[in-house]
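Comment thread on ticket #2218

A.B. wrote:
> Attaching the input chain for the structure job we discussed in standup.
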Amino acid sequence: MTVWNLLQHPPAAYRTVPFWSWNDDLNKNELLRQIEEMHRAGIGGFFIHARGGLTVPYMGEEWMEAIQVCIEKSQELGLEVWLYDENGWPSGFADGKVPALGQTYQQKRLAYERAPFTDGKEETLAYYVQCGEELQLLTPDHPRSPDFRVYYEVNPYYIDTLSKQAVKAFITTIYEAYWVQFGNKYGSVLKGIFTDEPQFGRGDHPWSLELEEAFETRYGYSLLEALPSLFLETKDCRRTRYDYWACVTTMFTEAYAKQIGAWCGERGWSSAGHVVDEQTLMSQATSVGDPLLFYEYLQIPGCDWLGRSVSEEPLVPKQVSSVVRQLGKKRAITESYGCSGWNVSFQDLKRIGEWQFVHGMNLLCQHLQAYSLRGLRKRDYPPSLFYQQPWWEHYHRFNDYFARLSMLLVEGERQAEVLLLHPIRTAWVEQAGSDSSGIEPYHQSFARLSRWLCQSFIEHEYGSEGIMERHGKVEGGRFIVGEASYRVVIIPPCLTLNKETVNLLHQFILQGGTLIALKPYPYLIDGEQSEEIIRLIDAAMKPDMNRLSLAKMLSGIVSPSISVNDGQGNPIVSDMVNVQTLKLEGSYLYYLVNSGEERYPDTVVTIWQKGTPFLIDIENGAIEPLNHKAMPEGLRLNLTLHPAQSYMIRVVPDGEQLSDSETVTELELQYTEGRIQHLDERWRIDYIDDNSLTLDTCRYRVENGEWSQPLPLIFIQEELLKIGAPVHIELEFEVNAAWNSVIERELYLVIENPEKMKIQVNGNEVASHSCGWWRDIAFKKIDIRGCLQRGRNTIRLALDFWNAPETYAAMKRADHFESEANKLTFDTELESVYIIGEFAVTSESPFVDGGEGVLYTDGPFTIAERPQECSLADDLVSQGLPFFAGSLRLTQTVSLPPDNRTNWVWKFGTRPNAIVTRLSINGKEIRTFLWEPFEVDISEYLQSGENLVELELIGSCRNLLGPHHHVKGEPLKIGPDSFKDKPGWTDKDLDPDTPIYQSRYAFVRFGLSHVPRLVSMI
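C.D. wrote:
> Ran it. Output below, let me know if you need it in another format.
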């Protein structure tokens, strides 16, 4: 069976593997139901991930029983099960069990101060006296008082990841426990373990009780004597810093990645995961030392990509994919979509995924699928890409797409022949205490170089000097790193290179290899000045520091495999248009991706390879011949590059042919636009899901005291937590209705944990018995039909607000380190309530365009009668659906004259403001639109005279769950703090004192920005 035969139905091994967030009480029947949901959605497996909100004891008997039930169900369905090695993140602390072993196992960071010294609890390592411009270690018999001291602080909530002993304790506590429970019995279905964001610090200098001896054994001089050089400009500071960071990086990598990777490999499991702070040289140096070294030891190394955007810089995915290719690891996993928000579209998901895939990633782990949205769980770096979403039944299309794409990229062999050295070691020598400003110019230069190469379609990878030490060699004029071979090596602007790197580059030049260096050139070897490196740079080619100069120098050695020009013949130069070339089973693949918002019509793509081109349709697995012009040097194609669109072009070289078992579809003919048939802006509403109204503000009182003014519930929760003791509370919501209350209609109040509350509507008690759930298993429906009257209504909830002493203790710990915050679970949570049913929601204040697809209104809101039709000239949010989270079907009749020769194309004009848009004509579904292009040939579905057109628009949970009050309207990076009033790390671009919470409501648009049209094609 070849890859081509599997394109229709790729195996589970290539399919998406999301984080499945176990974040509540775990019901076995519900776990099985959710696995079946995943299977129907085309998901290949899942990582079982403990997160904040979990009420089952982590790693306890009930936890293990739940895992076993899921393994056996997955075995039945053919899904792969993966574990996750922590309760929350960052990985390593084993839910607190390893740090609890004592200070030896706990994380430590270096710090310093000048005299006079504070009398703190820190552990002093050494005192120093000032002698001229240098600080000298103070000996016990020295008569002078110290001028300077270096000490370390202890974080009791995380581990010393430089210590093999500490990491071994983590492996014993988590990994060994899982192996004992499941290893021998479920080896075939249980694939491995994810490790998430391990680190030795975050902007700090790490310390370990094992570091001093390891350093002196390795370098032969005293680390204590040299410690001031890590913080101050001293005579030998660059050598000391180089040695220090090399030592801690090696200790971290060997203690953590190497031990875990070896443990998994010995048992046939795979260690997957990624480190923290992958984005910049500045953050990498003080968090993990060199992320590429870490990737070497994981079977499936990966990266994290957060938020609803992509980057101009390809560093994060390319760092991982470089090591994967060089060391023959096949798969590179990306944890994606965390913080992207409830309104992330399929086009956004596709764009973010493919931007990483064209830069070398090939396995998708979605962040995340939430078991439950109860309480804080709905704000856990949303969205939940799971059953809660109105568009869930269409998710299989996305998962099938990425399964096909993953299979091609995993099995294909990348063709990059340029190696760009990674300058992390320059970051080591430029890190001065907590000041990393000296590193930033080198980061910018490195990123710019990589961008220029991408813009010129010169495929390249990064070279870690640490990996090259062990896997680098020169043969036949090629620079070889593991299984990858390069014709060109580029030295970016930097300060220092490794001695072994310099030796290899000398050999490379002697064997005729091409070495390119760009200013400023390195002048240090291992942090010390050296004449040898000057001789190396003298032998290198030196282009000017601009894209054209670099591309011209490279073009005679490693010409791009492809060129892309616009209709006027101008090269398309964009960070968002990229290519990856692969060889696969005798064919060449050209994976061309537009990750931007710009549309490129009439694009001329030249492929510098002779043969016959085919288009692999990743949406359905079909292979189509491509219209092309054969040239002596290759092929010329005319294509349109829509926003977030990609092409997978397969070129079968001359003399080769497709196998008999491969299916090739006929190529569609091309037409030009003729006359336009405009549709009416008024549409009938044929069907609509229950509408919803979110009530997120209420009055409250404690122990029958005075009622407060209306406040956001999220702030009431914070006020009650400050009391620190159990109290009886009441919440009162107000609902206005403008409808005929005599009409019988279904109406529900949706509440979390209704069984713990006494519920009154307009003073009348309502049974708190649930009649099912809506959107999420925690959102319980309470029947209130006939309870709301015309005019003002009140809904009152009475309950006991309490948290156990252990919960308050956990809250205090959460203030100190993220590992404690990320697993926090409250006993009582106050959340918005919802009213759902057959109604419209109107606002007493107007809806105002806030730009970027956002509408603002001040409210208040009223429940009204639902309209029978709507206008697509206006947004549906302002036509009664501001909080809507569902689908609706619109219809109209279009009359066409008899003309058998006309071909008609449906065009939306602009991207619909919906997650899924389905088009049917005369009762036949034509297409489900998830992403560009938003047009389709409808000729065969039309008839002379009357034609019934149906449009189904499916939205998201964004307008139901928010954030409704963020100062940005719709931020593109969303975390728990996005719903509060102080900026968190997802809003680090704002001033720390910026009030986040605004009283007005912000909604995202829902509907169409333009009325669709029919265009005749001739």
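A.B. wrote:
> Thanks. Noting for the ticket: The chain has 21 helices and 60 strands.
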